[in-house]
Design goal:
With about 60 residues, the protein is an all-alpha fold. Helices cover about 85% and strands about 0% of the residues. It is elongated and about 80 Å long.
Amino acid sequence: MNALTLVLGRLLLTLTVPRRRDERGDVPGWVLVTVMTAGLVGALWKLAGPQLNSMLTSALDSVHG
């Protein structure tokens, strides 16, 4: 029972003591996600832009007409 108490005490101490957060990787990660998203949107726009434009024009024409 003494070993269990020791383990539970260490677990409680580990969970309740605030840890210093290392946030050095956060900014480069978000920059990478943003750049990759912009690249994907640009590539999709280049490939599907004319089709999307014609679909939107057709839809708007059907509403107006």
